[in-house]
Specification:
- With 241 residues, the protein is an alpha/beta fold.
- It has a domain of 163 residues: Vaccinia Virus protein VP39 (Rossmann fold, 3-Layer(aba) Sandwich).
- It is 41% helix and 21% strand.
- The protein has eight helices and seven strands; from the N terminus they run ααβαβαββαβαααββ.
- A seven-stranded mixed sheet has the order 3-2-1-4-5-7-6, sandwiched between helices.
- Strand 2, helix 4 and strand 3 form a beta-alpha-beta unit.
- Helix 2 crosses helix 3.
- Bound molecules: ligand GEK.
- The site of ligand GEK has 20 residues, from helix 3 and strand 2.
Length: 241
Amino acid sequence: MTLIKDSLYSQPLGQVNAFAFDDHVANVFPDMIQRSVPGYQTMITAIGLLAGRFAKPNSVCYDLGCSLGAASFSMRQNIAVKNCHIVAVDNSQAMLTRFESLLTQEKTPIKLQCADIRDVKIENASMVVLNFTLQFLPIEDRAELLAKIYDGLLPDGALIISEKLAFEDSRQHELQIDLHHEFKKSQGYSDLEISQKRTALENVLIPETFATHQHRLKSVGFSSAELWFQYFNFASFIALK
Ligand code: GEK
């Protein structure tokens, strides 16, 4: 895949529209996410390792909010068990069209579904991945989705969630945001790009604290939810049924 450089916010925009996963974003997505999310590649690699451990024969692994399929491909590389398939869901057709063009069918099939993850049935799941997707749902819809995932997971199943985090303490919160912006600058984004993207994501990406996530996961039934990775205000956690 050729990496097209993300320059969507490089020119001054009279009006910054709310961020959407449209054709323009899908076109530059691999470059955008790698230069915007600290530790992205590490998390993708680890999702593969986790699939190697949690994927069970005769079960399904879900990648919810799959974009171009980085997590699905990483899972597939590590799934050695028989009769297991991956269901990859996104409600952006622009993303799925590109994902489909990268897809070759191998031993562990990947089935694409264009749907809202709130409407998707989760059944017979050994592993579910929400890699930077939950943060785009309205807060009031998050518990219901997580409860549905909990119900669809097999007894030893795991849910992997990666999210941008907020922090209780305002100084810590501002510090982490600042550090993230420094990270983006180090990746070649200008102050203008950083500030216009921030405006576009306002009210679209709604981060919560890890404590809030952990509490909600336990309240829908998960027996344990712990951080396994954090780089500034980006983190990934494992919730066990
Ligand atoms: C990766 N997981 O590379 N239903 C379905 N899809 C949705 C919904 C929804 N309600 N809301 C958002 N999406 C990927 C990266 S990107 C993260 C995930 C980011 C989809 C949206 O269309 C987009 O493709 C994805 O979730 C979020 O591992 O851009 O920060």
